[in-house]
Design a protein that fits this description.
about 100 residues, Alpha-Beta Plaits, two-stranded antiparallel sheet, 2 helices
Length: about 100
């Protein structure tokens, strides 16, 4: 039996995405960005503005501003989930600049 593939869901704008009732366990009161040693960088020329990075980010570290993803490095832990889930691969993880 072949493994099932996840259905790819692409939203044309953040307004089309389902509303999340609450976000449990995130660190809005702590600046967690100092923990990371790699950081996501978004290449807007490749971005399709689907919002998947925002949806999958486990912290409040990605915001959609004027339909573009913007990383708040004060809260980003560098987990790389956004880069892994990005369908257009416009997010790459790079070494943190100290």
């Amino acid at each position: 039996m072949r493994p099932k593939k996840a259905k790819k869901v692409v939203f044309k704008s953040a307004a089309e995405m389902p509303l999340l009732i609450c976000s449990v366990g995130h660190q809005t009161h702590n600046l967690t960005g100092a923990w990371r040693n790699i950081r996501p960088e978004v290449d807007r020329s490749k971005c399709i503005q689907c919002g998947i990075c925002w949806k999958f980010c486990p912290e409040p570290a990605i915001e959609i501003v004027d339909e573009w993803p913007v990383v708040d490095y004060d809260y980003c832990k560098g987990c790389g989930i956004c880069a892994e889930e990005c369908p257009s691969k416009c997010i790459v993880m790079v070494e943190e600049r100290k």
